[in-house]
Structure formats: structure tokens, C-alpha cells
Amino acid sequence: MNKKIIIAIDGFSSTGKSTIAKQLAKKLNYIYVDTGAMYRAVTLFAMQKNYINHQFFNKEALINDLSSVELSFKFNAELGFAEMYLNGINVEKEIRSLAVSKLVSKIAEVSEVRKKLVASQQEMGRDKGIVMDGRDIGTVVFPEAELKLFMTASADKRATRRYKELLDRGDDVSFNDILFNVQERDRIDSTRKDSPLIKADDAIEIDNSDMGLNEQFERILSLVDKKINE
Ligand code: DC
């Protein structure tokens, strides 16, 4: 008997979590939620309000102003996935910039931010039938998720993928800058006090350093099938 499940995908930055999550959601007709986009949107908000830059962070000001952060996802049929809106404005492009990537881990350390975002993520998954990717989905957001995946790949492979993505969209970036950012984010995300990036005991680890997209998708799909038909 087919049932709707929750699929939690966690792992290091640029391990292709969102690519696989989008593919799965499409195939299963599930909702896809990119929680990194939510942390990125709060970061953009903090930058716009001058609460944070590369040498300064007024955490209190951000916390006091969190009630004016309204996040929503709107499905873009042409792209086939939902785009991130911050206070009614599409911020999909801005939140992927290196400037946001450099500050997002600092914002993600703030417990008040996490509390707000986790509550809305749990609400989105109330009816199951959801694929959610992030850092704490299998450990904090949905510890009861039926399927938990933990994605890894070498830092070099990940930086190369990210570098190509940013070049393709016309950003002027250096490979070393990206590699440093990927490693630095992993370090901060894994060592923070609140909800650090760790593999849940019952998560299945997938190292895709040398795995093609199709091979990875087929492997994960068979894990999903097993869970759905259990
Ligand atoms: O998945 P991403 O690279 O777009 O995520 C950006 C940052 O947001 C990441 O470096 C850590 C933070 N994040 C988090 O702390 N918890 C999540 N569930 C998702 C992202």
C-alpha cells in the first residue's frame, strides 16, 4: 500500500542535496522545501537592514526585527520548483550570491532564527509527502522522518560544482574563494551549539564524489520505494 512519507536530506554544502531533492519531489509528486534558501533569505534581510556585514553583526537588532521577516515559497511552473520570496519579493537570485554564502552560517547560528524557521518547516511537513533538504532536517525538524539521507562529497568536488554554477550565472568569483567558503561553512555548520550538522543515527550516508547523477537518483529512488511500500 503506497503511503506518503517525509524524506529528510542533510549534508555538507554543495553536495547536490537540492538537485536530488528536486528530482525526487518531481518523480513522487511531493512538495520540495529548500531550507537553506530560508536561512539565506534571513541573511539577505539582515544585510539589507545593515545588521550584518563581513566585520560586524548586530545580533540583537536582527532578533528584535525577526517578526518583520515574512518568507514564502511560490511554485514557478516554468522552472519546476518553488522560488524563495522575502516580504513578497522574489529573492531567488540574490540569495545564491557569494556575498550571502559568506554570511549565512553566522545567521544560522542564532537560535531565535532557527526556532522561527524550524516551526514553519514543521508546519509545511504536517501532511507528509515532502522532501526537505538542509542541515538539521533528520535530527531536529523531522526526527521521525521515514527516510533520512546524509550527503557527502570531497571539498574539492563540491567547490568545483559551486564554482561552475556561479560562473554559469555570470558571477565574477575565484575558485579559491569558493573552496574556502565551502570549507568554512562546513566548519561553522558542524561546530555550532544549536542544531549542528551531524548525521542522524538512522540516516543513510551517500558519498557522491564519484557518482553520476543518474546512478545516485536510481539508488535513492530504490530506498524511497522500499520505505513507501513497507
Ligand atoms: O543548503 P545551503 O548551502 O543553501 O544552506 C545555506 C546555509 O544555511 C548553510 O551553510 C547552513 C544554513 N542551514 C542551516 O543551518 N540549517 C538548515 N536546515 C539549512 C541551512
UniProtKB/TrEMBL annotation:
Keyword match Transcription: no
Domain Cytidylate kinase: from-to ranges: 7-225
Name listed for the protein in its UniProt record: Cytidylate kinase
Name of encoding gene: cmk
Catalytic activity: CMP + ATP = CDP + ADP; dCMP + ATP = dCDP + ADP
InterPro entries in the cross-refs: Cytidylate_kin, Cytidylate_kinase_dom, P-loop_NTPase
Compartment(s): Cytoplasm
GO molecular function, one term: kinase activity
Keyword Ubl conjugation attached: no
Enzyme Commission identifier(s): 2.7.4.25
Pfam families from the UniProt entry: Cytidylate_kin (PF02224)
Domain of life per record: Bacteria
Family that this chain belongs to: Belongs to the cytidylate kinase family. Type 1 subfamily.
